[in-house]
Amino acid sequence: MSKKTHVQTEINGEGIEFLCEPRQSLLEVLRDELHLTGAKEGCNNGNCGACTVLMGDRIVNSCIVLGVEAEGEKIETIEGIATSEGLHPIQQKFLEHAALQCGICTPGFIVSSKALLEQNPTPSEEDVRFWLAGNLCRCTGYHKIVEAVMDAAKALNTEVADNA
Ligand code: FES
Ligand code: FES
C-alpha cells in the first residue's frame, strides 16, 4: 500500500485538508474522500468534461489532475455555485430551457459556463459553442444548453445593471 500524502487546499471557499495516495485523481478525492459527488465520472480520461472543476482560474478535468496537485490551490466545484439565496442564474436557466436530461454532463457544463461568463459577460453563440467544446453531452443535442448559457448571460447582465 502506498504512503498517503497530506494535502491542504481550499474548496468552495473553505479550507480543507485530506490524505490521498499519490495515484489518486482529484475526482476520486472529491467524490470518494470528501463526498463531493457533484463532479461526475464520465470517460475518466480527459475527454468528456463531466468532471470539470475550477482550479484557481483554470478549468480542469479533475479525472486527469492528481489529488496532490490540489495542494495550495483554490478549487471550485458545482457544490459551491448555488448560494443560500438560491440557484445561480446559469443553473436556473438550465432548468428553464430544459438543458439537461440524464444530468451527468450538467455539473461540468455549469462550472465551465460560469467561468466563461466571468471572463466574457457578453459571449456570442459562437463563443459559447467554442468554449464548451470540451464538454460532451449524449442527451440534449447542445442547442438548449447554448440557449441556456446565452440567456444566463442576459440575466446576469440585467442583474449587474440593476445593481449599478
Ligand atoms: S470524466 Fe473527466 S473528462 Fe470525462
Ligand atoms: S444530459 Fe445526459 S449527457 Fe448531458
Overall description:
The protein has 164 residues and is of the alpha+beta class. The protein has 2 domains: 5-80, Beta-grasp domain (Ubiquitin-like (UB roll)), CATH 3.10.20.30; 89-163, [2Fe-2S]-binding domain (DNA polymerase, domain 1, Orthogonal Bundle), CATH 1.10.150. Helix content is 35%, strand content 15%. It has helices spanning 26-33, 89-96, 106-119, 125-131, 143-163; strands at 5-11, 14-20, 52-55, 58-61, 74-76. It has a 5-stranded mixed sheet, sandwiched between helices. A hairpin with a 2-residue loop joins β3 and β4 (58-61). The termini are far apart. The mean pLDDT is 96. Bound molecules: FE2/S2 (inorganic) cluster (2 copies). The site of one FE2/S2 (inorganic) cluster has 11 residues, from loops.
Q: Point out poorly predicted stretches.
A: none
Query: What's the architecture of the largest domain in CATH terms?
Result: Roll
Number of domains: 2
Proportion of strand residues: 15-25%
Structural class: alpha+beta
- What's the CATH C level of the largest domain? Alpha Beta
Order of helices and strands: EEHEEEHHHH
Q: What number is the mean pLDDT?
A: 96
Overall 3D shape: globular
Compute the number of strand runs. 5
CATH topology term of the largest domain: Ubiquitin-like (UB roll)
The termini sit apart by 57 Å
Bound ligands = FE2/S2 (inorganic) cluster
Total helices: the number is 5
Biggest β-sheet: count, sense, barrel? Answer: 5 strands, mixed
Determine Rg (CA atoms, Å). Answer: 16 Å
Helix content: 25-40%
